[in-house]
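subagent[fold] <- orchestrator: predict structure for attached chain, return tokens only, no commentary.
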Amino acid sequence: MSSMNRREFLQILAAASAAGIALDSRPLLAAGNADATYDLPRFGNLHLMHFTDSHAQLLPIWFREPSVNLGIGMALGKAPHLVGEQLLKAFNIKPGTREAHAFSYLDFAQAAKTYGKVGGFAHLATLVKRLRAGRPGALLLDGGDTWQGSATALWSKGQDMVDACKLLGVDIMAGHWEFTLGDKRVLEIVEKDFKGKIDFVAQNIKTTDFGDKVFEPFSLREMNGVKVAVIGQAFPYTPIANPRWMVPDWTFGIQDDNMQKTVDEARAKGAQVVVLLSHNGMDVDLKMATRVTGIDAIMGGHTHDGVPKPVIIKNAGGQTLVTNAGSNGKFLGVLDFEVKNGKVSDFRYKLLPIFSNLLPADAEMAALIDKVRAPHKARLEEKLAVSEGLLYRRGNFNGSWDQLILDAIMEVQGADIGF
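subagent[fold] -> orchestrator:
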């Protein structure tokens, strides 16, 4: 669906009103205006775009935000542990709008019918190009969990996503589920596919024998005369959460002390701005921001939290912005910094939902996706069943899709327990 200009939109409103259609009706809301949704004025002199946890979802999907996100102790009632009406109120989002659908589970079934699918790399590519046109030199950051999560990613050992990310124009990447491809496959991609194109960074991955770094801890770039360091943080608990044998010779961990040393090193090499590209999960990022100084922003992932605005954490060195950009290709975070006299003086942040019916598919990316899926088309499009209820996965503990998978495993395998 192509976007409409302001005059055309007003003409639709006038015609709808004359026909007796309520101006807040679902069909009218669905028409939308891509310019209004994605017109993000340029601000400052340092520009970063961020997506994370796409889990190999190349095509647009239906995606429901959680109805439960438990926060305990000091985290109770605070982002990212806000859902539904609480989240909308906290971030001043009007209920019943496209934005409310993007950030909450409310009225999901009807709202999904109205506003359509979200994500899709061809639609994401269109938005990235649009934003880069107004922000020359903007860096695109990939927070990880990118090479795993679909059939084609499994069958190609992540190659479909590697090729898609290169075409998308990713500059810097961190990781987690990437390591389930095994250390040798990860190194093969980093040393061959990514060489000279994408920096794979991780300050917290070292060898088990001598503690040598496996990847560069940060990437130092320059934009509009401003030097920025992007530090990588892989998921700290990879050897526990995923099979140890896949990365037998690497250690992970949070490593606050080493993070501080890395920040100090980046500053010593001229970085005026330091950004952490993290796969800690937002609660860990919030804690790290209180303990490590000199980080201007943490652009985080792992916990799939779509948080509309940064949480500002005060610390001994000043303040750190903490963001989290959702999952499954549904959002693109845009962070603009104004840097004066060698330090950040102001910022703007926007977490943009990717509505596939508002953003035309980028032809080159769409062709790549078709090419990836073509050999498996019949298998991928095989109809398996029809559900009588809503199937979704997003939640702290369980979702209807999760239960369906577990029920199937127990029935087919004869298991007494599935988890």
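orchestrator: received. Logging for downstream: Residues 80 and 305 are 6 Å apart (CA to CA). The mean pLDDT is 93.
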